[in-house]
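Recap from last week: sequence in, structure out.
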Amino acid sequence: MNEKVIQSVQNPMFKQMKKLLSKKGRVEAKQYLVEGRHLVEEALKERDVVKKILVEESVMQGVVLTSAVPHIVLPSVLFNQLTQTETPQGILALCQMQSERAIDDSLANKKVLLLDGIQDPGNAGTICRTADAAGVDVVVFGKGSVDIYNSKALRSAQGSHLHVDLATGELQAWVEACKEAQLPVYGTALKNSISYEQVQTPQSSFALIVGNEGNGVSPALLEKTDQNLHVPIYGRAESLNVTVATGVLLFALQKKGTSGQK
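Predicted structure tokens:
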């Protein structure tokens, strides 16, 4: 096995990996850490994603997954400085960020989810996982949205960030690109909108914009949509969590898209 042991906080490799705990460090290195056996296994399924496997010395024998990727063994005092969970499982993976999908790549026949100011990492990760399950091709993190490579977002995504194309950028430009690709663009809003159940035209591809629970989708974006949708509430709850609403809408539109292909 290709194995290296790090014993000092002064080790250059260790210092570099600690920088990945911040967004700035991740962006500069174009790398990130995933934590826990499941996420490491998911990352290993993807070609050229995992660069190194980091193993806590005290539990090494129980977590070694493969000999094809270099292993770094760290004592607990160092390993725990790289983890962000209360009960670490003794394994991390150093991963390469995937290339972002460019706005000028063809969006024809694609399903695109646009996130407007989704700030909570748990929500962002769960939305990414839901989008993956609903067959979405591209997830765009707009201005004000959390970094998908945030540790909590990654745990919530459960590996789905590896299964969809990711992008960041100004959503106005993405909406225009979706329209140029002849995708119907749906916004989400409580006012001046229709229930998703009233969408009549089946579509095999579409763009959907969702916003944070406090402010919703920005008015400027809602003005550019083809139709704004809402999920009707039949009980006394004031609103739905954005992840739940996104799931309802994605699967409803996906169903219409599927029926339109028959």
